[in-house]
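Hello forum,

I keep getting stuck at the same step: I have a sequence, I want structure tokens, and every attempt I make locally crashes halfway through. Rather than fight my setup again tonight, could one of you with a working pipeline run this one for me? It's a single chain of 642 residues.
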Amino acid sequence: MRSLQDIDWPSLIRDREFYPSPTAWQDELLYFLFVDRFSDGSEYGGFGDLNGATASGPAGERTTSLFIEKEHAWQADRQSWFEAGKSWCGGTLAGVQDKLGYLQRLGVTALWLSPVFKQVTDSNDYHGYGVQNFLEVDPHFGTRDELKSLVAKAHEAGIRVILDIILNHSGDVFAYQGNYRYYYHEGQQWPVAGFRTNSQDNGTLPFAPLAKDLYPQAWPDGAVWPLEFQSKDAWTRQGEIRSWDSFPEYLDGDFLSLKDIYHGSGPDDPAMAWDVLESIRRFKTAPALTHLAEVYKFWIAFADLDGFRIDTVKHMEPGAVRYFSNVIHEFAQSLGKENFYLIGEVTGGRQHAVNMVNTTGLDAALGINDIPDKLEFLAKGWRSPGNPDTEQQEGYFDLFRNSLLDNKHTHQWYSGHVVTLFDDHDQVGVKHKFRFCGQQQNSSRYLPVALAINLLTAGIPCLYYGTEQTFNGADQRSEDAGHSDVFLRECMFGGPFGSFQSRDHHFFNEEHSIYRLIHDLSRLRKQDISLRRGRQYLRQVSATGAENDFHFPQPMGGELRWIIAWSRIFNGREYLCAVNTDATQPLTAWVTVDHCIHPPGSQMSCLLSTDPSGQGMTVDVEERNGSAVYLTVPPTGVVVLR
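Reply #2:
Ran it on my machine without issues. Output:
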């Protein structure tokens, strides 16, 4: 399809039953993967299909065996291994479909795919964010029909599919005059040489709608498609952003070499930069934004998608986000998808994220107020969990309380509107980047703590691919930080860029201890609504149980090696979750519980413990600090009571 006019809407929609939305997205467990880095379908051993049958081999196209750390780790030459990670590695949509059984047994209920759209020809944009054709799947990943097949099979497995989409920009589809790099300067529009035929071209195609008979070299690999985006007015043309927090530069500038799409006009007064409501009121929609809405309506109808994750919301006018959200929600509802979810990558603090969700029609915010940082380093014992006795937003648990400050009628609002994660593909704000397990040699010991906080606290939990196999990518260079994000994006299927500096051995190991822990946590979460939608309270703890000795845990000397506990309460039922941030020894403490639900003399039972001997045991509730239980948590372990 060269034009939006080529979309046959009746054939896409007529006589089709679309997959329904979930009742509440906080009931879901998300899993984000890079299609290029996940699976090429050649793996065997260690995992099963949807029916549990193990893929055996080597046979036929299955030639990649399971990674064994003591045999395969650190065997690749680091420089050539790193160079391989900068470009396409070979993961496909068919490979993702092949691993639906692996994902289902892990506990995943919603799969978040990296962008799959056609990238600029001959570019290294394996990540999918450099779009050249918004209506086509990149052949590296497969075909449109393979995307449709993946979504259909995922639905059969009870897994919904969220697609990562790009509204702010395209790929590097045109060249400025002289093929020079131009930078943003006071709103100046720079001269354009023309559209590119490929990533190395100097812009030899006219910067205008291209007639197919006059410029056959433009289709399908040159310029930008559909042709509605070939108008010069579809682009801001103001050069690259250099000051990432300067208004309106961060709205109108190019995202590095990726070209900024003109969505429409809003206020240009820097004093109004954070006035979301006024920005929306003054916004006037441009044609390119309406074209983008048509593009993504097509993908919903074609592939039966369940949600979008919207990239770089910070760099879009709030009015543009609101327009897009309303159009997409209305269209999805017309298909019976009453709760089609829009997750925005919103940075700039909790209040700004809440304002954007409230006013633009986004359903949830991703990256709210440095959640990854607060979650990761709380689990590692280097952050405060928060302190309900103060109004400060200093710790992870502080982000999910004080709902009155955000004019919310219930604590539970955050559960359905904030996506929580720690490992991710960008790690914004860090120069030399690292996965959770890659920061230090013993970091993986703290992974159970992070997973328990992620899956058993308020919010919509999201896992990043490879975390369940303790991927440990880390940029260990002392000076150069170029392509540092590559170290966050190892291949699950091995290929030329496997984790643990390996090659050609896959990581789909369903017997891995962390995979099994996530399986157990997700199953427990699924069994009771309290762990998904319950109110949340950080609990006071005490080493002695004496009066006036109960406190919210806080770091001492920069470290917190103690028990962190919280309750999830829903409709008169309480779950008590506790983790231990000390890696060397089990810790025992008195932990406060709800006095009305658990009066002294009652009991609580252990539903999950990383020490198998503790599973199934009961503990007595005693009259201390109202009501409290005496609880032992294994080193960097997890205990859940009910």
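The mean pLDDT is 95. If your local run keeps crashing, start a new thread with the error log.
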